[in-house]
Design goal:
Structural class: mainly alpha
Order of helices and strands: HHHHH
Shape: elongated
Number of helices: 5
Radius of gyration: 16 Å
Strand content: under 5%
């Protein structure tokens, strides 16, 4: 039973770390003009409520790491696991919850790519954390 809670804790923590990395990416892209250069109207302000949302949802999505897929490659695992929050953002959050059109196209035609990159940052960060938490002797994930 302890092992189950340790695994759940590691997964949630990995997701929170990924949420922080995703938040830094999105905020930095706005501050340094990357999102504007891509024609994407996503440039969030660094505020506690915005960061809290990133960390909590990152932790919830981190539960995907319960499934032991692609453990040998941090990069591949991060990209694949990042597809789930990307799909939800593009197919549910932007069109239904925010009213920004399918795939968030009202925010710019490059929005799907921007979201995919951000969620890849989340996924790779979380996968890296999970690779650090593997039991000794099982090997660590590689890029």
């Amino acid at each position: 039973m302890v092992a189950v809670f340790q695994t759940l804790s590691a997964c949630f923590t990995a997701g929170v770390l990924g949420g922080l990395a995703n938040g830094i990416f999105q905020w930095g892209a706005g501050v340094f003009g990357l999102s504007a250069m891509m024609g994407v109207a996503i440039a969030p302000a660094w505020t506690p409520p915005w960061l809290y949302q990133k960390l909590v949802w990152g932790g919830v999505w981190g539960m995907l790491y319960i499934f032991p897929l692609l453990k040998r490659s941090v990069l591949l695992r991060g990209v694949v696991y990042g597809l789930a929050p990307t799909a939800v953002a593009l197919l549910v959050v932007f069109p239904d919850m925010l009213g920004k059109g399918m795939f968030g196209m009202e925010l710019g035609t490059m929005t799907p790519l921007f979201v995919l990159i951000g969620n890849t940052v989340w996924g790779v960060s979380a996968a890296w954390w999970m690779s650090l938490n593997q039991e000794p002797g099982r090997g660590r994930g590689r890029l």
